[in-house]
What we know:
Blueprint: H1 3-16, H2 20-23, E1 49-54, H3 61-69, E2 75-83, E3 94-97, H4 98-103, H5 105-115, E4 120-124, H6 138-147, E5 151-156, H7 164-170, H8 184-200, E6 205-207, E7 220-221, H9 228-231, E8 243-247, H10 252-255, H11 257-270, E9 273-277, H12 286-291, E10 295-297, H13 307-314, E11 318-321, H14 325-335, E12 342-343, H15 349-358, H16 361-378, H17 381-392
Parallel strand pairs: 1-2, 1-4, 2-3, 4-5, 5-6, 6-7, 8-9, 8-10, 10-11, 11-12
Amino acid sequence: MTVLGAVGRALDRLTDLLPARAGAPLKRGRLRYDAAELPPPLGVPDQPVRVLIAPSNAAGQGWSFARALEGLDGVGARSLQISLARDFGFSADARIRSELTALSAPWRRRHFAEATRFTHAIVESGRPQFGTMFGGRTGDEIAALRARGVRIAHLAHGSELRQPDRHRAIDEWSPFRDEGWDAIPTLTERSAAYRRLLAEVDAPVFVTTPDLLLDWPGAHWTPLVVDPELWAADEPALRRPRLVVAHAPTNRVVKGTDLIEPVLRRLDAEGVIEYRRFEGVPAERMPENFAAADVVLDQFRMGIYSAVSVEAMAAGRLVIAHLHEHTVDAVLNRTGLRLPMVSATPATLEDRLRGIARDREGAMATAAEGPAFARAVHDGRLTAETIDRVLLRPPE
């Protein structure tokens, strides 16, 4: 170690002890950051039960879960999003870029001090939330929170828990059968690592899609949460002479976009449908885009329905996706309601769309069931009740 290097590291340690606005400009070049980019304090609720949800906020669900929980008596909740990439502008109570959590010791200290004042923490996706404070080890972070009396639960949104081998074995359309998809090894290891964390940290596990119950038996389904009023559309669907078909892929491989687009473009060229793809569109623009469609296509490789499906159902649009029987049965068994969607695969989508274009009556009836289903299952009440029963105020 050179003298200059030792002096530099000592200076870094000293600047870490200063408030962010004073210390950040003094840090060495690659460690310097703009303190103005740090979010304000998260703010700890003053209710008796205080829930922190962090750090992924996938599709805005951390924030939506927090708002749902605040519908319970005596519960306050906050969501923190540590952004790894573009987040499409989903709401969060606080948001910070991942690199800042590693650079700013003052932010880490402040966030940990706030986190320990919550009564409960729901840890999303097995990700760390305190930067380098505990070496980026989620298990150590959880142990530190528990040592200060915070009760813990896990929340899985999808690919962090879903086992590629299991999915590949049951679905011919599984993206995990795609040998050209270079993310498969990473997703396989990520799932294995997350399941090791769940086994190590014994705590309730919540999942946002029913298929994940197969990946962690004993988990609790907490349905995706949307605001039905935000997505409500004035005009009913399927009344246009030419069907407007929308597709909003967040991940083209997972959604099966390349498998279905040749069919969609051919039907568009024939005048059967008008195809519109929305990719990289900010979240606040999507309600108007769905309201202007008749049919919304979700995913065609996973066997599940995502937030896109729920939003489109809330808008009264006809939703088509590839659905596993387990998903349909799990919804029915839990809620007593039929999932008002049309199931199709890349091989059957063309026939489904041509049939809908010829005879709209059945499709109109299915679409009309969507808003009531979205309100009953996905407006947050069922999710909040589940978390309350399992984590916040379990029966003695």
